[in-house]
Amino acid sequence: DIKDLKEDLNTYSDLIVENTRAISDLRVELGAALAENENLKIRNVALEGEIKTLKTKISDFEQGSLEKTVEITGIPVNANESVVDVIKTVGRAVKFDISDAMIDTCYRRRPPAGSNQPGVISVSFTRQLDKERFVSLARRKRDLSTRDIGVIVGDANRIYVNHSLTYARRQLLKLAKDFKKKHSYLYVWTRNGRVMLRKNEISDPVEIKDAGDLLLLSEKNGERSTH
User: Fold this and answer.
1) Where is the FP protein C-terminal domain positioned along the sequence (predicted)?
2) Rounded to whole angstroms, how far apart are CA atoms 25 and 118?
3) Which listed residue, 95, 104, 114, 165, has the most CB atoms within 10 A of its CB?
């Protein structure tokens, strides 16, 4: 019996040694897996950063293709109108003489289906300098309306002259406007196709490149994302 007991103890001892080795091996494998998981997290963060950078470059490239283009809204459609003449009339209203040579292309877009608003007039200048000057003077005349271009029938419609934006940049501008209202910012505007925010008169302007920038500003304002 004692002999059998010794044999059983030896067997159990061997099993304990094997289990100890197995546990040790599992710990090593677990440590390696955790290290690999951490490496994957780091690589994932790096890849997300690269993707964000590429998206920003693509967005900037697409917006850059519109760097000489402006959009004019609020001008009623006139039968047999000449879009070039309409643009020149707006130019004279803001004291900026626009010649044929300044205009590369121009046209009036069709309004969205079901909309009672006139189509937007798009004009691309041959020089960005002329485009910037036109936008600047139009914005200085804050009360620019259809009365200034000789339309005397009906109510005076406000005329807006803005930088042309891609769809993605327009969506970002909308988010920035919502953010401005929610967080009591005073200013939101576009500068050469870039979306800008400013808290007040003494704060520095901040460029908003994507929705993530707005999230960071929210966190700086003491809010935390619930997602």
Assistant:
1) 166-214
2) 74
3) 165
pLDDT at 225: 44
Q: Of residues 57 and 15, which shows the higher confidence score?
A: 57
Chain CA centroid to CA 109, Å: 23
13-41 residue pLDDT tens: 777 878 888 888 888 889 999 999 999 99
Task: Report pLDDT digits (tens) over 147-171.
Answer: 999 988 888 999 999 999 999 999 9
Say if CB 99 and CB 193 are below 8 A apart.
Answer: no
At 214, list the tokens: 């707005």
Cβ-proximal residues to 97 (8 Å cutoff; 6+ apart), any chain: 88, 91
- The predicted pLDDT at position 53 comes to 87
Question: How far, in Å, CA of 47 to CA of 125, rounded?
Answer: 39
The sheet carrying 187-191 orders its strands as 187-191, 194-198, 206-208
Rounded Cα gap, residues 10 and 112, in angstroms: 87
For residue 3, how far is the Cα from the chain centroid?
82
DSSP summary character for residue 118: P
Instruction: Give the C-alpha distances (Å, rounded to integers) separating 211 from 26, 117, 142, 177, 206.
Output: 43, 29, 29, 12, 13
The answer to whether the CB of 196 falls within 8 A of the CB of 190 is yes
